[in-house]
Amino acid sequence: MLEPVQGEGGVIPAEPGFLKFARALCDRHNALLVLDEVQCGMGRTGKLWCHMWEEGLKPDILTCAKALGGGFPIGAMLAGGKVAEVLQFGSHGSTFGGNPMACATAREVLRHVNDPALLANVAARGSQLRRALEKIDAAHTVFSQVRGRGLMIGAALAQPWRGRSGDLMETARAHGVLVLQAGPDVVRFLPPLNITAQDLEEGLTRLAAAVAEFVSST
Questions:
Q1: Domain containing 124: what range?
Q2: Last residue of some domain: 66, 93, 113?
C-alpha cells in the first residue's frame, strides 16, 4: 500500500516508473497493489486520480475520502478484477456504509471534479504556484526544494530554517494566507481546485511578504 504522492510524509511524488515497478512486483508475487489517494486523488494533481499520470497503470484497490464528499463525510474503497470477485455483495460493510446522502453528494462532487476545464485549471494554477515559490526562493534562498504535482505542492525549508515549518505557517496566517505543514521541514500548499489566477496571485503576494518577514526575523 502506498501513496502516489506522499502527503504527511513531506509531499513527495513517486519517481516516474516507480508505480509501474510496484505493479510488476505485486504481480510477480501475487500481491495486491493498493493505492491511497485520500490526499492526492480527486483532481488534486490535475487528473481525477493521481496514478493516472502513469499511463496504463491499474491498482487492485484504491482508497479515497475527504475530497470525495466535498466537505460531507464519506470514504470509499474502489476495487476491480480479482478483488471485486472476492468482495461479494454484503461481505464487506460498515455501520454507516452506503449512506444515501453521502453517496449522492459524492456522485455530484465527482461530476464537477472530473470536468476537463477544472482539471486544466489545476494544472495551470499549479504551474503558477511553482513559479511563484521559485521566485520567492530566488529572493530569499529559503527552500531547498519545491516538489509535488498540480495543486499539491510542498516546499522543503533550507538551512537554517529546517524544523521551522510551523513558524512559517503562523507567519503566513498573520498575513492572511493559510498553509499547512508536512512535517517540521516542509510547508504544504493545497489551494482550492477552482481557485482563479487572480486569487492565487493575491495569496502569493501575501506569502512573499510573510516569507520576507520570516527570514528577517531569524
A1: 116-216
A2: 113
How buried is residue 195: exposed, middle or buried, by Cβ count under 10 Å (0-12/13-18/19+)?
Answer: middle
Angle between helices 197-216 and 165-174 (to 10 degrees): 120
How far from the centroid of its chain's Cα atoms is residue 187's Cα?
Answer: 13
Any idea which residue has 493521481 for its cell? Answer: 50
**Which pTM was predicted?**
0.93
Single-letter residue type at 167:
D
Whether residue 87 is found in the same domain as residue 175: no
Same domain, 37 and 129: no
Percent of the chain with pLDDT over 90: 89
Alpha-carbon span 120 to 19, nearest angstrom: 23
User: Among 113, 141, 160, which residue terminates a domain?
Assistant: 113
Domain total for the chain?
2
- 130 with 207, same domain: the answer is yes
pLDDT tens digits, residue range 62-118? 999 999 999 999 999 999 888 888 877 777 777 878 899 999 999 999 999 999 999
Cell numbers at residue 128, please?
A: 503558477
pLDDT at position 105 is 97
CB 40 within 8 A of CB 14: no
